[in-house]
Amino acid sequence: MAFSNNFNSLPAHPRHLTTKAEGYRERFVEPPGLDDKGLMPGNLLAAFKGAARYMCLRGNIIVAVDYLFGLTRPQDWTGNARPIVWPSAREQSEALGLSPSGVKLLNRRLIELGLIIAKDSPTGARWGRRGHNGQIIEAYGFDLTPMAHRVGEFAEIRDAGRADDAIRAQLRRRKTVAIKSIGQIVRTAAEQNFDTPELYALAERSFTMTEGLAASADRQTLLGVVDALEKLNAAVFALYRTLVRTRTAVDKSNDIPRKSAMEIVKNDCAGTLYRPPNNNYKPTNNPLDSNSLENTSSEFEKNRAQLAPKDREMGGDFKLPTVRPKEVVRLAPAFATYMGQDLDRLDDDRAIMATIRAAEAVAFKELGVSPSLWREAQQVLGGWPATLAVMVVAAKDQDYFSRTAAHYFAGMVSKAKNGTLRLDRSIWGLRTRMESFGGNA
Q: What residues contact 183, with CB distance under 8 A and at least 6 apart?
């Protein structure tokens, strides 16, 4: 029972087609015959949607195919029938939310991709009619037959893409494990008070390796980053073991038994209340128990500090790990409110100066720092280190401070005067906290 004899042969058409589109027309002459393949239209559409992501097909392409599928009927995909639909340009425009010219461009794109075939009438109009049983008697419009013939291709692309996704997910897990392992080693060394500038400088490379790495990075890129991070993790652990052996050897040579904090007995005969080190830099009566992240001077190499030209003169010999202006905004979102400029459009020196101006606004308006304290901080630390100090304070919750954020900042300036400020540890802790919360500190 054939209902398609009147329209099965493709008539002459006025549409201009490229060589690639003509090739698809010649390849997909046979009817789809999904029933012979044991498939239904829903299986075909699911296979296409599963493969579309890996074929770099996005947005309107998928929506348009879904819309055209919705215009077909099950009997259009069986026997000698062909799934032809004939929506008008107005109907497509309303259904897809596009302008008439956008609809024309989208139709041409679908034809070029080999997803549909243009079956135009001699006049170029799209129309069709069905019989009493719903079978298409005559129709001119868009033929979806290529989709049925490419179902195997779609399934293969989908399966290969999902396998690649699984490998990339495993690589991302290995990346996370390596980064967290490096952070754990550094924190352990800091707790034991034998961390060194070399250890921080080595561990800091992990941030450089992952800087700019897109979440959708391909497998080869991820593999290179993961291999580098795992090698760096091994190097950091080897340096940590060396520091442990060195400290053990020194302790043995001095014959000084080391005690843990739990073994230390506080026998203050005067009954003075013990105050542990806290967030406003109050002095403690038992410094041996202090594991504060800012209790020794920084010894980083001077060329690691990223300062504006005039700030290098103001900053003296104060040394810092490399922190870029964009990272300042990421670690302390309060800076974005007062930035006023797009850092992506500025060179390094101008971006640093814009960040310093934003730090001044944050210090005054968010932290309650007085102008005299800010000037003192710039004189003692330098412009860029003072900016990083503001970043550290602004990144903390208000509940963290036992008094106020301004008192905390004043304590940092006092420690800088005494040479005991460890901004390197604070910045490292802030970075690792940001990583732990998935980019949201």
A: 203, 428, 432, 435
Q: What's the whole-number mean pLDDT along residues 221-249?
A: 90
In terms of Cα–Cα distance, which of 345, 344, 340 is closest to 360?
340
Residue 334 shares a structural domain with residue 410: yes
In a domain, 14, yes or no: no
Q: Is residue 263 part of a domain?
A: no
Q: Looking at residues 76-104, what average pLDDT do you find?
A: 90
In degrees and rounded to multiples of 5, residue 260 shows phi and psi of -80, 165
pTM > 0.70: yes or no: no
Q: 287 lies in which domain range?
A: 270-441
Question: Which amino acid makes up residue 85?
Answer: V
Structure confidence by residue, pLDDT tens digits, 114-146: 898 888 887 778 889 998 888 888 899 999 999
| 143/205 same-domain check | no
Long-range contacts of 264-272 (CB under 8 A, 24+ apart): 264/288, 264/289
Q: Is 223 exposed, middle or buried (0-12, 13-18, 19+ CB in 10 A)?
A: middle
Tell me: the pLDDT tens digits for 24-68?
777 787 888 887 888 888 899 999 999 999 998 888 899 999 999
Largest CA distance in the chain: 109
Question: Is 326 inside any structural domain?
Answer: yes
Asked if residue 6 belongs to a domain, the reply is no
Q: CA Rg, the chain, in Å?
A: 34
Q: Are residues 94 and 221 in the same domain?
A: no
Kindly provide the b/e burial profile for residues 132-151, where b requires at least 16 CB atoms within 10 angstroms of the residue's own CB. eeebbebbbbbbbbbbbbbb
